[in-house]
């Protein structure tokens, strides 16, 4: 694998901490949306907006006919291509993998046991919070298109205004997840109900920062309209925005054997059930040796590492817990050098968050 320079390292951390998490559900930004004002009597209620959204993409019957979904998405960042593959089953099976010049990842579940593949073809069983991350990533399209799934995760869904979004008249819907993590606003086309995107605002050490996700390039497959482009705009993104394109989308083309546990995972699950599990921390420690100090890093890396740690800490412990396995996996695939030492420092500091 090519050596990572400081710019590539920053992108690697960004992808681990930001974009994939945003994609997994409507909840990666930590600041709760402000309480809404009294609803305008001229606005439709949330049931009507969500019902229109379903009809706009093909109707409830067609949505329910989706038993499994297979998607491949790519994005180009600073001349590098990152590919993400998701497999989703209504029966509970999930699979997510990503390939990039910065390292590869692979994780899945049969609906009961969630696993992650580590470098060296070693597998670990993921904890509950990590399994939730997998579910969110693999369920990306279904979560954003099916209000029934959306409602399951939300404490609050209410129509608060009609305003323009990406050049379209839209109904603005305030959402608050049940875990109160990642409140914000979703937007639905006021003409036909189609979901247009969402916005979320985060309090960071650099002040408030807003992330906007826009859905586009809709295509009909098996009677259902799917978005084939997702644009993420954020001050955290290189160049201010990243565009993810769907290069493959198949409906009901997967066999349930797709989600069968790898043999090593079956053995691990059996050992855990028998009380012989390897225990926490088997994913490898990034803190081998003496503690790394900021001044131990190359001068060109110090300020970037400090800002990365502060920004990730601002998301809270739950967000950090979701990030760490992916960062540790990336660490194992990095060559020795300044970039790897910087990554060790970032992981070390994040692990101090209680």
Mean of the pLDDT scores? 80
- Low-pLDDT runs: 1-37, 277-288
Please bin the fraction of helical residues. 25-40%
The helix/strand class is alpha+beta
Topology:
Blueprint: H1 6-17, H2 19-24, H3 46-57, H4 60-64, E1 68-77, E2 80-89, E3 94-100, E4 103-109, E5 114-118, E6 122-125, H5 128-138, H6 140-145, H7 147-153, E7 154-165, E8 168-177, E9 184-189, E10 195-204, E11 207-221, E12 224-233, E13 241-251, H8 263-273, H9 299-313, H10 317-332, H11 338-350
Antiparallel strand pairs: 1-2, 1-13, 2-3, 3-4, 4-5, 5-6, 7-8, 8-9, 9-10, 10-11, 11-12, 12-13
Helix pairs in contact: 1-9, 1-10, 9-11, 10-11
Descriptive notes:
This protein is α+β, with helices and mostly antiparallel strands. The protein has eleven helices and 13 strands. The protein has a 13-stranded antiparallel beta sheet, sandwiched between helices. A hairpin with a 6-residue loop joins strand 8 (168-177) and strand 9 (184-189).
């Amino acid at each position: 694998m090519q050596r990572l320079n400081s710019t590539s390292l920053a992108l690697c951390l960004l992808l681990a901490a930001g974009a994939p998490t945003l994609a997994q559900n409507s909840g990666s930004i930590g600041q709760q949306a402000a309480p809404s004002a009294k609803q305008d009597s001229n606005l439709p209620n949330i049931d009507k907006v969500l019902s229109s959204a379903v009809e706009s993409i093909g109707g409830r019957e067609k949505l329910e006919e989706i038993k499994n979904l297979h998607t491949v998405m790519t994005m180009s960042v600073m001349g590098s291509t990152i590919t993400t593959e998701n497999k989703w089953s209504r029966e509970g099976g999930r699979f997510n993998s990503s390939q990039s010049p910065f390292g590869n990842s692979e994780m899945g579940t049969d609906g009961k046991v969630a696993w992650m593949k580590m470098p060296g073809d070693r597998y670990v069983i993921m904890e509950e919070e990590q399994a939730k991350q997998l579910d969110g990533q693999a369920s990306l399209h279904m979560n954003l298109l099916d209000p029934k799934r959306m409602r399951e995760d939300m404490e609050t869904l209410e129509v608060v205004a009609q305003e323009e979004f990406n050049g379209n008249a839209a109904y603005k819907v305030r959402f608050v997840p049940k875990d109160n993590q990642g409140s914000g606003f979703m937007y639905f086309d006021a003409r036909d109900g189609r979901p247009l995107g969402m916005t979320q605002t985060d309090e960071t050490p650099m002040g408030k920062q807003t992330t906007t996700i826009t859905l586009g390039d809709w295509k009909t497959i098996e009677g259902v309209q799917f978005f084939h482009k997702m644009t993420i705009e954020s001050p955290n993104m290189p160049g201010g925005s990243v565009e993810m394109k769907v290069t493959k989308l198949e409906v009901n083309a997967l066999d349930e054997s797709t989600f069968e546990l790898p043999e090593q995972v079956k053995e691990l699950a059996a050992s855990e059930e028998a009380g012989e599990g390897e225990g926490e921390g088997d994913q490898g420690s990034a803190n081998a040796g003496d503690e790394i100090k900021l001044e131990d890093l190359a001068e060109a890396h110090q300020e970037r590492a400090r800002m990365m740690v502060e920004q990730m800490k601002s998301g809270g412990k739950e967000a950090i817990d979701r990030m760490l396995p992916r960062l540790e996996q990336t660490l194992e695939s990095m060559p020795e050098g300044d970039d790897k030492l910087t990554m060790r420092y970032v992981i070390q500091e994040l692990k101090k968050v209680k």
